[in-house]
Amino acid sequence: MVRYASLALLLVACDPAAPSVDAGADRDAGTSLDASLDAGLDTGADAAASPMDAAAEDAGLDAAAGSDAGFEGTACSVGGVPGTCLDVADCTGDRMSTPGFCPGPAAIQCCTAVGAMMCDPADMPTPNAGLVEAPGVGGCPAGMTPVDTFCIDRFEASLELVAGGTWSPFHNPGTNAVRAVSIEGAIPQGYITGTQAAAACAEAGKRLCTDAEWLRACRGPGLTRTYPYPGPRDDGRCNDARAVHPAVERFGTSESWIFSRLGDACINQLPMSLAPAGSYPGCVTDEDVFDLMGNLHEWTADPTGTFRGGYYVDTYRNGEGCLYRTTAHNVEHWDYSTGFRCCAGP
């Protein structure tokens, strides 16, 4: 797994319509690049900045000089689509050039394949439309299964609008009234605060799991397991082993400005990023609960702010597998990695 250098956490004001950050560093993990990304910075900052501006300035490059030497062949990325920096005259055939993602003169642009995955963060796709929550197991509410004296969602939650229809799992729900559902094959809801997650569970007649319930579901009877499956860590058994950080891939750089855009809707639409619920068949407990490790962080009912289990890049920095816990953010924090599931009873 590629691990990136540490970066300082950037601080922004709390805004319910954008990702928020606590003033403290991650109390569990220290200051790693992953911890910086967990800070969930304002998506609106630096919106007009070119991804390569800072790199070009630091390198002392003169884009106006007109020389292409040394710039062609550099790797680049546009909307998560990998490409190569080329002179526009050489980007031909079934390829297209995009300015602003390469160092050097204006003629050097990122050349990517036409028809490759491109993403507009303003779009609101609803991939879960038409999916239906299954009946509950063992007398539990819909989508749930019994564990000891309580019921828990079998799958990470997605959202339905209370007024009807599904919500895009790639956007914060804002002030919309939404209901949590647990559906196999649905894209689970990221980009959500702990407060919004609790309200969505309540709309479904459920509630957020307590820390004790969440740990019992993941670690099994007697709390003996470190992972939801038996035995040692098995990278890739859950959605927990992405090699390249999705924000770096999305924006084609590791410059610090990308950490102000962690609410970007396209991050969780990258290939090999967020997976449909239950699509890792080995990532399941003996009681048939899926994805408790990896895929998305999961909010619990801790009023000071806790999410557990790690996500599709990191399931070890704040504790191994089921023991992973982040406590650095209050319940109004959100970014692409924050999700949830519900509990009910007893």
Are there runs of 5+ residues with pLDDT below 50, and where? 1-18, 20-67
Strand segment count: 14
Write down the overall geometry.
elongated
Order of helices and strands: HHEEEEEEEEHEHHEEEEE
Q: Helicity level, as a percent range?
A: 10-25%
Strand numbers in spatial order across the main sheet: 1-2-4-3
- CATH uppermost class of the largest domain: Alpha Beta
- Percent strand equals 15-25%
CATH architecture of the largest domain: Alpha-Beta Complex
Sketch the major β-sheet. Answer: 4 strands, antiparallel
Helix segment count? 5
Mean pLDDT: 82
Decide which structural class fits the backbone: alpha+beta
- How many independent structural domains? 2
What would you note in describing this structure?
The chain is α+β, with helices and mostly antiparallel strands. The chain has 2 domains: 1-42 and 134-346, paralog of FGE (formylglycine-generating enzyme), CATH 3.90.1580; 53-73 and 81-113, no CATH class. Helix content is 11%, strand content 15%. The chain has helices at residues 33-38, 53-58, 194-203, 211-219, 246-251; strands spanning 75-78, 81-87, 95-98, 108-113, 144-147, 150-153, 158-161, 178-181, 207-208, 297-299, 307-308, 325-326, 338-340, 342-344. The chain has a 4-stranded antiparallel sheet. Strands 5-6-14-9 form a 4-stranded antiparallel sheet. Strands 12-11-10-13 form a 4-stranded mixed sheet, with no helix packed on it. It is elongated, with a radius of gyration of 21 Å. Mean pLDDT is 82; it is low at 1-18 and 20-67.
